[in-house]
Amino acid sequence: MRDAERIQRLRTDGVIDDRQADRLLTALRAIDDELDAVERSTDALLETSVFPASTPNPADARARIEPVVKATQRWLHVDALMADLDIEAYDDAHEPILNLQRGTASLEPTPGGWHLRQTGNRDDERWDRLFGNLVPIKARIRVPRQLGVHLDVKFADVTIRNVPAIRGRIYAGDLDAAAVRAVDVRVHAGDVDLSLDPSPGQHHARVDAGELTIHVNEDANVTIDGHVSVGEASGPAPLVAHRSDVVNVDLKGTFGTGEAHLHAHVGAGELTIKRGAPSGE
After folding, report:
1. Residue 91: strand pairing partners
2. Distances (CA, A) of 189 to 78, 207, 271
């Protein structure tokens, strides 16, 4: 039974009245439209991703083979609805190790690496998933140093350390990533704090609503192309902030030779570029 049908059933059974049912149906349509928009824009972003594919497949528009991060041949695909994840790479790790502290999840090998999936019937309707038995997972994942991380999570806080590349999306939540060489990520609502030593090529970081803070390695050679639709942007020289109108601001400039190209976009919020590692690292 679909979400709309469940709401109609609740109305018929007298659990909710007509006004409550109409409000739920209106909210449901809005959520569906928003998720569809995020899915389309994220897919478009990934289709232009600079990352090498784990297993090239001509039928998959996301399968790309450009060697921006040549060592990243395998990926940990993280698929979760609600999660609190801590992922860190180690030199002595040969395969991912899952330390699950809450909830249920599976970790399985795939042709392109590994797949971490929050367990439960992912075909259930959203109504069941949000109000049913699904428990948010809390986990620490130890991964090999050369394993990239692909995020496909809806509501999550994610911390990532020492992996060569991160790509994918978080619908709502925070991303804290350090010691990363390549990035192509989008957070719809939340904050991103990213420590990046960018390899040559294109890199993308986008926050639709929230704060995007990027710490660029002191010796990095990178061209910054930043934009905030509504909000503020700041960064050290030679970066220059230019406000085209009352709400839009661009932040552009080049560190070193500019071999890497970082596209940083905030819809509504704040963009901050810093030089050097964050304090405490």
Report:
1. none
2. 18, 7, 14
